[in-house]
What does this fold into?
Amino acid sequence: MGNIINRLFTKKFGRLSTIFICVICMVCSLCFASYRVFAMGEVSKFTFAQLEYNGGNWNPRPRGGKCLMWELIKRTSVEARIETVIVRAGDSTLFEYPFVCMSGDQEFPPFSDKEINNLKLYLEFGGTLLIDDSLGKTDFGFDKSVRREMKRLFPHKFLERLPADHTVFKSFYLLNQAYGRVTEKSFLEGITIGNRAVIIYSQNDLGGAWAKDSFGKWEYEVIPGGEKQRAMAFRLGINIVMYALTGNYKQDQVHLPFILRRQM
Amino acid sequence: MDMENLTQWNLTFVGVENFGFRLLVVLGTIAALYFSWLGIRGIGTLRKQLLLLALRTVAILMIVILLLQPEMEQQEVVRLKNKVVCLLDNSKSMTLKGGDTGVTRFKLVQDFFRDNEAFVEKLQTNFDVDYLAFSDIIKEVSYNDMKGGFTLDGTSTDFTQVLKLLKKRYAGKSVKGYLVFSDGADTVELPPNVNKLEIISNLARDLSTPFFTFLPAGNMEARDIAISNVSYDSFTFVRSPWKADVALKVSGYKDLRLPVTLKQGNDIISSKIMDIDEGELHINLSFTPFTTGTFLYTLSIPVQPHEAITENNQVSLLVKVVRDKIRIMHVCGRPSWDERFLRRVLKSDPNIDLISFFILRTPTDISEARNEELSLIPFPVDELFTQALNSFDLVIFQNFDYRPYDMSFFRFSHYLNNLQRFVTEQGGGFLMIGGDISFSQGGYDGTAIEEILPVYLNGEKDIIDTSQSKVVLTNDGLRHPVTMLDENTDRNSAIWKDLPELNGCNVTAQLKPNAIPLATYPVKGEPSLISVQDVGFGRCMAITTDSLWRWGFIPISNGGSNRHYIKFWQNTIKWLIKDPTLNPVRITLNRETVLPDEEVLIKVEVLGRNYQPLEGVQLDIDIANEFSGKSIFVTRGTTGNDGQYRFAVRHTTEGYYIVKVIARKEDNEIGQDYSIFGIALENKEFKDPSIRRDVLTKLAEVSDGKSFYLPAKNIEERLFIENPSITKLVGKRQISLWDNGYIFTILLAIVSLEWWIRKRSGLS
It folds into this structure.
């Protein structure tokens, strides 16, 4: 089936794909604008959950998640809550939010055993953890604590570099490296269970690139790439959310010829 | 065995076998006679000299005889006749009449023996003639059988086998000719890379005996249109094209246009018109089965006037349609946790081939990137909902609004009609999962999709209720395969009560009359949350929430598992695709095709709603002919404590038979099942009625024989069989010429007489 559709795409849609998408978007925007969009309650929407933990600074970029959600709603079909929620690793409410973000810029004490066990189950059964090092310094402070806790979470697995062709880099936007407020590492790290990266670790302060103050001004300067780098950081954030929501959808055979053509 | 007795005598000398010694004995004898004469010649009278010489000669000869020990050997010898073997084809193809002559092929053989009686008589006088009938075996017949006619009942002709049997039977015997009367129609099917003619030639060569072949002449070719071969897979996959390559052999007809038809019962499922001309023709027929099971298809071509064989105009094919992978099309209107957790279940099942299309960006979204920077692909609606649709078993619309794609040049509503036909006519499954852009919110009211959904949609009234609540299982849901998360209904009920709360539901209008509500949502009006319905040949299901994912994730936090969530989806998919394992009544046959009067063992197994063996179920069993509908076996049975009932049937008439079982418990029908078996005596003889001159000519050619066409008269003028003389020693006896008392007595008497004469004559 995949082959048939690939063939059809290649033959029929090859050069016309761009025009096709544009036409669909233009015409549909006219039609669709007249429909009311319902949401099946706030709880059904994608929610950016911030992980609270003891010690350290668990929420150095409190407005980062909210800004990402704005962009997510604006740019994609995902229905998301603007407001972020706060969860703790040891609470059962953690499981209400299959996506959780852990940020920090300081060293923090070890998680309790209960928190570790709960978080482990959460990740094994479908949850996704985004870790954002707001400090962006390897083997120091937050990073040091994160790597310690990762060893406790999955003693037989390691944080490994996610390759450039990983689905997270093509789940919505086509990207070729990791971005953030800083560029500590041009790649993301992660822990994979089965064929799913359950933990995605950025050391480039993604939240710093997303955060705006209450007057709509960027809270932090993005270095060294400036606004272009910030835009790419948003793209990466959206890709991470899309990856959490769709898994390896973009690895399906039907997508590959398009993605390969666009990446060339 | 004809033979002539002879007696032969031989003289042998066993005392001195070496020729040199024999010569020495002769020379010694001559020397002894010479020296005797020298001694005797001094005697006075000539009379005495001659007398003594005579006595001495006789005595020496006696001694020589004793030395040489002569014996007479008497040999009993018989003169044998050479063999000639008449091989008479007794396969069914010999009953075929030639063209418009009205004469069968075997009648030509009989006429040969009548027209060439003198030749046959001479043959029987000069040779030892064996008469053998052959097909794929050989059996002895007599000349009288030949003249009177014998049964032509061979169902397969196998020259290779016959030649091997001849070699074994006549090993060491002097066979000087094989007379073969046949149409040469060897029916053995060998792989394409094996040259049958070459094998036959090598075997004939190996026999080192000429074959004289007699075959019907050209005007004896039968007029026939035969389905000579059908290449097909006896099992195929549901929703995949099944193909048959049909080979037709046409003899005696040309310039016709006839339909080749494939039927299931009385329904034509594929047909093609083809131009009929002399020779071998090929045609491909195909169709796509939409349900699993074992089916009988009949391939036929109309019977024409004066056809020699009408049986070969029709062939029945038994095809088992099985499921390959379950092919699911998953269309999702927006990424969500409900979609993510469902996809995870589907992707983790190796039996599922999942094709997903998620709408990641709506027309109102602003991606802030050029298209080349996005990984988005066009939604291939045309391909999916036209050409490829029937290759799926199940289509899932999850929170999907079709209207953005329903444009003047790209009518998605047209594809909804295709989807309706996919379910109602092709037996596919359809599942709609709720959400903010699903059901009425997706604009499906008044569309073809509403017609197949188990619930009515009403755009004005349908709302979304976002109150959190647990689902409530209905009475139907307690025992339905979809919602049966545990075999025990009490435990099943408890499981459902323990499932986490959901986040809301699409409040649809009332259920359709034939729909079955499996679970409701306990809010105002108790709207249906899970409902199912059989629609035409297919099945349809509605789940009016987008938060089932919670069943697969929330229980983990309380030490539970996601197994009930997974089980729910497994059940759902099995039910929607009509998985045969969900049929509570199952018939199993030990064989699908048997010979006439061969036993067929049949097992009927009945499972309860809990899918456990059900005891005490009354079974109405009927076995009837597929075409006539006439029952050949009707019985009633009751299942044992293993839920099974076994029985056996035998029948002699060839054909296909349908076993139908209806299971009842306390007058309530539990279910029914059917299966098919065939009774067939394989008859390859009429598949291809052509006369194989090449086989018989080659047989004669490689063995230094000759081919003749029937009818043939005055054959003795054209047929010569070598007949060298052969004898056989059957006994011998030796008579000794020296080993007796007379020889010794005579020798003693002669020596004594000579001594007496010498004494009387005063000699020493």
Remarks:
- Residues 582-679 of chain B form a domain with the Immunoglobulin-like fold (CATH 2.60.40.1930).
- The longest strand of chain B covers residues 668-679.
- Chain B touches chain A through 73 residues (CB under 8 Å).
- The mean pLDDT of chain B is 87.
